[in-house]
Amino acid sequence: MKKRASKALEPDEPLCCCEYVDRQGERSHVAACCCDCEDLDDACDRWLKKEPQKANSLSHLVTVMTDRLRVPWFWGGARRVHLSVLPPLLLLPVLLHVAALHFLLGIVVLTALPVLVLWYYYVTHRKKGRTLFFLSLALFSLGYMYYLFLTEVFPRGGVGLTQLGTVTLGVALTLAALVHTKREPGYVWPHPADVHSTVTYHSPRPDRDPGHNGAGQEVVLANRGSGSEQQGQGVEQMDSGRSRNWCSVCSVLRPPRAGHCRICDICVRRLDHHCVWINSCVGQSNHRSFLLTLLLFLLTSLYGISLVLRSVCPQQNLVTSLVYCPGVYNQHSSALCFTCAWYSSIVTGGLLHLLVLQLINVSYNVTEREARTALRDKTARSLYWGHVVDTGVYSHGFRGNWAEFLTMGEGPDTPWPSLTDLV
Fold this sequence. Notes:
46% helix; three-stranded antiparallel beta sheet; mainly alpha; two-stranded antiparallel sheet; PFA4/ZDH16/20/ERF2-like
């Protein structure tokens, strides 16, 4: 394979739907996937000659292929497709159809699938890396369950148009709440009064040792704000050049209860946690919509599961039909619906546990981040194996905590566009 020269991108020349700019800043085309990959040429050549591969050759090859895996788009050129999006789209339908072949296969698949998902979660969480796997799994699971409901359950005749409309409305509201949740968690943007500050270096007092703390100067940070702001905030004394609320990564002064997310690499107001299922942080601006998304999904899922079980097991009780449904594996369509009901029940149980923990934390006015820190430092009262954590720092009683949560602001309306533009 001969290397093909890439044409540099002109400043005013637009991209067509199949063109893109690669990681080296050169114009390329989606059809040129592997035709000029030197890493692939070298790897194949070494494999044919039975020579050992170079160090990190596989990682370089994966990086190149990941950069070139793109799909045509109508504007702005071809869009990159993340590899973490593909596994749920390919594996979930296959595994569910395999699980519908026999009840023993169903037990194996429905047991192994959550274990694999949890294992992948702990691997990515430990590495503090971003992935679209969980968001892709959540969206595709919701869409695929709705597709099977339309193609397998509704034609059986046990579901009317009213029930179908209710499920459709629940799916639409869940997606709308998810879009609102992903809008912004409440980023702490740099303010001109914080960025363009006056730093004054004072000489040490005569009665103080110049070598105290290894430095001969004190640093005082004075904000150029209004008079009322300066009276309220005063002068921030910097200890060894830093403040407790100062984030050196984002170059911002964080308000109380804000935190820096190491996955998103940005500070968030009232940071609760980074949720992999939405691939975003949960903070002050989207915490309420996050709980609403969970609630809408759970209500829709429980209602859909009940309709599926009544359709495939009409003679059984709704509760016992999930455990005992005779003759359901005699027909592949019924077995597939029954397997999907079990899969949806597992997902619903996990998200119900998450929702309950969130409601408990809101009732005690504690975030998930504060709860983990308090349990680690043993500075909070915990009950029920750490599921209930009461730090007592921000609590105003049950009604007061919920009133504060439901009425808390969403932060500034006009964020600053770029951190580097203000430094």
